[in-house]
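Incident review: delayed structure delivery

Summary: a single-chain prediction request sat in the queue longer than the usual turnaround. Root cause was a stuck worker, restarted by the on-call engineer. No data loss occurred. The affected request and its eventual output are reproduced below so the record is complete for anyone auditing the incident later.

Affected input:
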Amino acid sequence: MGVFVSHAEEQLRGDALPYYRLGAESVAVSDTTGAGDAFNGALAAALAHAPAAPFAAHVRYANRFAALSTERAGAAAAMPLHAHVLERFGP
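Output delivered after worker restart:
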């Protein structure tokens, strides 16, 4: 499914465009429980870790994190580690 981002034009947060879509990552989906929570948590963590980075980089990370969370059953137990996201998708 992916994600759609829309900014006010005066608040691009380092992005080149006011709106854009990132496609879904290719994963072997087992259970989507908690994917939205995974996305939101990963987005907040990415923003806290590197607030000056373009917003698109944070959204890309959150999208990848959420995708990996669907490969295992459950919610909290299915959350990947940061190292797993980097190992699977790179920086």
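Verification: Residues 24-89 form one domain.
Action items: add queue-age alerting; document worker restart procedure.
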